[in-house]
Amino acid sequence: MANLTLKRLLLVSSYLPHQSLRRITPQISTVCQRHFLSTVSDSDSDKSSLILSSFTVQYLMNTCGLPLKDALSASQKFQLKESKSQKHESVLFLLRSFQFSDTHIKKLLIKLPKILQAKVNDNLKPKLEYLRDNGFVGHLLPDLIVLNPGILKRTLSGCIKPTFEFLRKYIHTSDKIVAAIKRTSWFCAFYLKGTMEPNIEFLLSEGVTASSIERLVVWQPSTLMQRPDRVVYAVRTVKQLGLNPSTPKCVESIRVLLSLSESTWNRKVQNFKTLGWSEEEIWLTFMRHSSCFSFSEERIKRTVDFFVNTMQLKPEVIAAHPKILSYALSTRIRPRYDVIKVLESRKLLNKENRNFWIFGLTEKDFLEKIVDKHLDKIPNLLEVYHGTIAVEKMDQLEQSNINSRG
Predict the structure, then answer these.
(1) Helices (H), 67-221
(2) Rounded average pLDDT over 298-313
(3) Is the pLDDT reported for residue 12 higher than 80?
(4) Which of 30, 44, 203, 348 could join 208 in a cystine, given CB atoms 3.0 to 4.6 angstroms apart?
(5) N- to C-terminal Cα separation, the chain
(6) Three-state SS string across 68-105, please?
């Protein structure tokens, strides 16, 4: 019974705001003490009681709002001194002055409870001020720190400032720098100049544009964190395919190559071969739409199976138009193919025109140019597209409509 009560209190304590939690803390401590004392040996009972009544646990629960479970866990890693409670309070005051909410503080302390022991004026404050002054205003700052508290463990002059200075060299607006760090919070924990810069300078020397470098830093930074020899190999490979490094298509191909290990690349190549692709067609597919090599082998198999066995397309046709492999089979390809079949059967589309180009239309254009255009002749075409009427039943419905008019 005591064990059940303890579990309920622990569950409740994890959801309560810390003002309410403060009121029931004595009850939780009492139940916890009884539970511990009833389940441990006499030699350990005094130790358990001390843990539950320690200043660290009480402070984390009463003042910071941590649930008992997290307070106990934190107390195993470090201890707060009651004589230094004013210092701990100054940390909390500083965080709140930078718009850390109670929820932010609770999440931060669960991840990095030792922050309560940090020096305010010599450590925390300068870092938070620098981040705020460089774009992380309002809730952006606490959101960033809660996402990656390790930033506060890095030195300002040795890591955080150099990160911003490095990013400014290749990213030309403050908003994009903030976006880059939000997406990749570990930027502030790495020496980027030593890891990224050699790769960036090499790409620039090979003709990759500054705007493409900026996009990679903001959206695909892992591409630039590779070993230099891998980057050299990727660039040489795409250039041998005839791609121009100054084009976005070439940069995307470099990115895809660098995202795949050698074994993964070989597995994907073998997958295409089992589906009927020749070596030349595989490279043609990669050159024209490299992103499809980012898809799982199973997804490629299902999509190719549909194109080859249902639509009767040959692998060389798909290789010449590989973007169709990127479309979702269940929500785009199948529904649109059902519409194509109906239109072809009524000679409203020419079968010889390889109507798979229709898959590339936007949803708006598909509805306007393909569906709405033929609703006067095929009133149920929209239902076919939405899957509420099977293609096989269309002839029956049309014959029924003719009979009813007759």
Answers:
(1) 68-75, 85-97, 102-111, 125-133, 140-147, 161-170, 174-183, 192-195, 197-205, 210-219
(2) 93
(3) no
(4) 203
(5) 79
(6) HHHHHHHHCCCCCCHHHHHHHHHHHHHHHHCCCCHHHH
Q: Would you say residue 13 has pLDDT above 60?
A: no
Say whether 64 sits in a helix, a strand or coil: coil
392 — pLDDT class (breaks 50, 70, 90) = confident
Closest CA to 221 of 275, 165, 183, 173: 183
CB 282 within 8 A of CB 244: no
C-alpha distances in angstroms, 247 versus 14, 169, 254, 325?
Answer: 52, 21, 11, 22
Q: How many CB atoms lie within 10 A of CB 29?
A: 18
* pLDDT at 401 (0 to 100): 58
Q: Quick one: tokens of 371?
A: 């569906």
* pLDDT confidence bin for 77, thresholds 50/70/90: confident
What is the residue whose two structure tokens read 């008992």? 68
Residue 38: its pLDDT value, please? 47
How far apart (Å, rounded) are the C-alpha atoms in residues 25 and 62?
7
